Amino acid sequence: MSDHQNTADYREARRLEALARLQILDTPSEQAFDDLTELAARWLDTPIALVSLVDDQRQWFKSRVGLAAEQTPRELAFCAHAIQAAGLFEVPDAARDERFCDNPLVTGEPNIRFYAGMPIASPDGELVGTLCVIDRMPRQLSASQQDTLRRLARIAEFQLQLRLSLLDSEDRALELEHQEALNQRLLGSLKAGVVACDDAGNLSLFNSVAQRWHGTDVMKLAAAEWSRYYDLYQANGTTPLPSDAVPLLRAWRGEPVENIEICIGAVGQPMRHVLCSGGQLNPERGGPGAAIVVMHDITEIRRASDLKSQFLATVSHELRTPLTAISGAIGLLRSGATGSLPPASERLLRIAQENSQRLSELINDLLDMEKLEAGQLDLQLKPQLLRPIVQQALEINQPYAARYQVSWQLEPGSADPMVRVDERRLQQVLSNYLSNAAKFSHAGGLIQVQLLIEGDEVEVQVVDQGIGIAEEQQPLLFNKFIQLDNSNARQRGGTGLGLAICKELVERMDGQVGVRSREGAGSCFWFRLPLSRAVL
């Protein structure tokens, strides 16, 4: 097969694809096309006018005037020749034209002598048919009549464009309808409540889960009326939530909505704790705008957390009293209140006292962590000079230094930065850093404490020359119940909560914590705090 034939086959395939996309073959008559053929026959004074579409087997007449047939074979069609030309195709006398003189449409009915056809292009430029006029006597169109036929053909092309646009719109509508149905099924299958509003602040989505939780469907209410129909409360479940604090309203205004806990008390349902997160759909616009909020039911999690808190409080209380008595008794025995003790008894009492102290520390750490997680640990923040707090921490923890045979030193310097902190809780952080440094230092080692001002922050560093920390373990140090995974660390003990508590406390004072260390080369535990500009 020649390259020319391959090219012709390719073009014909494209043309037929364009015709198929129009979905017009074998469709009912349409007034717009019928008007075109009527005007063409009238203005060009011919008995026959057609809108003809040519597929691979036939020419089919979308509209016809003066002809009973609905279609003819393609091999007989004058229009099959017309669509090969870019412009008007005219045959003045078919009986004298060697291409058509023996055509049954010329020798028989409808006895064609004159033919003029203007190709009709699809919206993508493929010639799919013609607007043609036919006469039973030889003739030619005048220049004015040729222009008329061209203009009418352009109107036919415009009708095809409208048709394709309508088909595309219908396809998009079906796709949107399908997508909407899919979205509804997905929303219905979610275990979360989903609510959304449009740019005007009116509810546009309120899925079935949200309706069930709220006990009503408030889709048609304006944003300002939501709070009247939502039985929403603060996280404590007792104080009504102000209307301007409803999570979706906050998101609509452009405020951050991240892990906000509220309560929903729908009629006939128990109080439900939900965690809300969301935001604007188009935040780059600025100002109020369409927003969405997703709500997760955390009622069981909250109930479990409350039970845990109650359990810890009960256990801590029940342990404190006997533990205090045990520690007191051991202290009296070791002080010689009952007389001198043999060395073996003294050793056992020392071990018992150390373990009592560790158990007391664990109870205190558990309670502190529980209060921090529940948001019940109130910090008394006020401007303080930092250096005196650090010096006091060194003095308080001197027994640790003596116990592990280390010394510490506050680096001299004129800087005495002011920070806004809770002094007692900052002492707790420093004590944890210092005690850890002492535990994991070698006997005779020096622990240095440094205050470094960097921009609008101060960094406090506790630097030791101890055993160091493996790089892979460092990211885990400030997590709960994490201890170094080596035998030396196990022997030195600890609750595994100290650094996690330090992290929580410092972050609540708007600071950060971290560590820099190399295994076998010591560690630097640090925390940063913003400088305060207040004047004492």
From TrEMBL:
Intracellular or extracellular location(s): Cell membrane; Membrane raft
Record-linked Pfam families: GAF (PF01590), HATPase_c (PF02518), HisKA (PF00512)
SUPFAM superfamilies: ATPase domain of HSP90 chaperone/DNA topoisomerase II/histidine kinase (SSF55874), GAF domain-like (SSF55781), Homodimeric domain of signal transducing histidine kinase (SSF47384), PYP-like sensor domain (PAS domain) (SSF55785)
Location of the Histidine kinase domain: 314-533
Keyword Transferase listed: yes
SMART domains assigned: GAF (SM00065), HATPase_c (SM00387), HisKA (SM00388)
InterPro entries: GAF (IPR003018), GAF-like_dom_sf (IPR029016), HATPase_C_sf (IPR036890), HATPase_dom (IPR003594), His_kinase_dom (IPR005467), HisK_dim/P_dom (IPR003661), HisK_dim/P_sf (IPR036097), PAS-like_dom_sf (IPR035965)
Membrane topology classification: Multi-pass membrane protein
Superkingdom of the organism of origin: Bacteria
CDD domains to which the protein is assigned, alphabetical: HATPase_EvgS-ArcB-TorS-like (cd16922), HisKA (cd00082)
The enzyme's E.C. designation: 2.7.13.3
Leader sequence segment: none
Protein name: histidine kinase
Originating organism: Pseudomonas abyssi
Species lineage: Bacteria, Pseudomonadati, Pseudomonadota, Gammaproteobacteria, Pseudomonadales
